[in-house]
């Protein structure tokens, strides 16, 4: 069974590699990538969000000590359909959540808190999958290893019919492999970004290469961010 799953996983990665390679195959396409990064610099809503992102990034003390971390997280990421009761349950579970992330027990974290969340809706409880919430939280503490996936990016890479958790792992692995094989291209993007990001919104030591790809493909997959949750 493990061999079958590993083969399937690799097959998905190969399919998605073709997409990213086509989009960023030469330097002219790298200018295409820079245009998408400039969206995040120039669009006020996205620029404001990036400030929030860098404030919480790997900020363990703030995560553990803030009394309304998840309320602000939900608001800034424009996450929908999540009530105060569920957010309170996450606040109470923060030490365990962070421990699971530290130990890379991501499937356990996903299944316990996000795969089948019971959300109060009126007088009833509705079971909801909060996979996008999960990916954004994991990316907050493991920004060099995992992407913040949303449905438009999932669909863009041809993974519409795959489960969200599998797609999250596939795209994260794809990004890391592309970065390993294209160090010259990512360095070119960072040099050019440094020349054009006058307010140093994105040009920071905390900006990981994987986050750069996150921003590029979010802007491409989300029609330049109109009325979409930010990344």
Characterization of the model:
Strands 1-2 form a two-stranded antiparallel ribbon. It has two domains: 1-57 and 143-231, no CATH class; 58-141. It has 13 helices and two strands, in the order ααααααααββααααα. The radius of gyration is 18 Å and the shape is globular. By secondary structure, it is mainly alpha-helical. The two termini are 35 Å apart.
Question: What order do the helices and strands follow?
Answer: HHHHHHHHEEHHHHH
- Which whole number gives the mean pLDDT? 88
> Tally the helices: what do you get?
13
Helix content: 55-70%
Overall structural class, as computed from helix and strand content, comes to: mainly alpha
Shape descriptor reads globular
* N→C terminal distance: 35 Å
Using brief descriptors, characterize the structure shown.
231 residues; mainly alpha; 2 domains; two-stranded antiparallel sheet; 2 strands; globular
Task: Summarize the entry for a quick read.
With about 230 residues, the chain is mainly alpha-helical. It has two domains: about 1-55 and about 145-230, no CATH class; about 60-140. The protein contains 13 helices and two strands.
What are the SSEs and their pairings?
Elements: H1 2-23, H2 27-42, H3 44-56, H4 60-65, H5 69-76, H6 84-92, H7 94-102, H8 106-113, E1 117-121, E2 124-128, H9 131-141, H10 151-156, H11 164-181, H12 183-196, H13 209-221
Antiparallel strand pairs: 1-2
